[in-house]
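[Automated response] Your request has been received and processed.

Submitted sequence:
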Amino acid sequence: MIQKTSLHAYIGIALISNLLIGCAQLQKVDLKKVKEKIEDLDRPSFILEKVSIAEINLSEIRLRVDSKVKNPYPIALPATNLEMNILIEGQQFTKAKTKIPTVGGNSNKPVPVDLTFAYNDLAELYKKVPGKIDLIVKVQGVVSLPIPEKYRSIVGAASLDFPFEEERKIPAVLPDIEIRNFKIIKPDPSTILSSAGTEDLAKKATTFLDTLLSPQKKSPGSAVAAGLSSLDLKVDTEFQIILKNRATSRLQFSEFEFELTLEKEKFLTGQPVRIENQGQESILSVRTSFPLGTVTQGIANAVSKRSAAFRLNGKATTESPEIGTGPVPFKFDKSGSFSWN
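Generated structure:
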């Protein structure tokens, strides 16, 4: 008898203990949140995924805001607007607005937005935070997704609001580019003769080069007019491309490609043989060449007078390790005039 009673008591105690544990666990669960999660499974949603640096160039920095709308319904969601407030260093900077197009049934719609910040506008901010290597950009707003009439009774509303907020550090940049220490290297006589193949053509090439590179700054005219169109001779050039950041971030450059035109005519293309990243200044050493037989009248005029209107454009990759930007596309397009000795 005593053993049977003890067994019943043990079972009772175990049941009560499990019930108490279960109650304690239920108290930890927010039933309201569980209900909301279940409801959300059948509702449209707006998600701000990330804010990234899309491009840096000589006049502006461009951010990309990636977001998307999810539509679980079998019918389309009507189009709506996406409005954003943009704050930089806690201050209202600008607003952005774009259209979220109709989102088809049972589908997701990416909604990318580009934000462009001109350096002329950022320069005033730099003055307020001298020495700061980055700026904190905050993107915030509320998206209201209209609900198809058929589903409003289920959702309990004509639209759903989705507040969003995301921050991103951007480097403090005011980049510039210039050409330094430009020189053209005259080929030695043996190279000229080897390329020409005949003494007559070599003599014409030598005369043309002597005039082109003479201190007298007299143009020899075009290579075609000088009878050099068949000449396969490369003339080497050496110079430096200097990339400066007039703001405070330390930038590093790689994968640099350029095209240089003189007097609106294509002259040189290439990549640097060496890049020295020195913080707010990067020195790119270039050694490339141009075919003598294709020198036009315009190029000959520019080279002979050691001065020209130029355009330097191309692309590279840059990053600011101090703030962890990762690789960012960098594009440049600079026009002006320069001279050399």
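Summary generated for your ticket: Residues 1-17, 19-29, 34-38 have pLDDT under 50 and may be disordered. The longest strand covers residues 134-146.
If you did not submit this request, please reply to this message.
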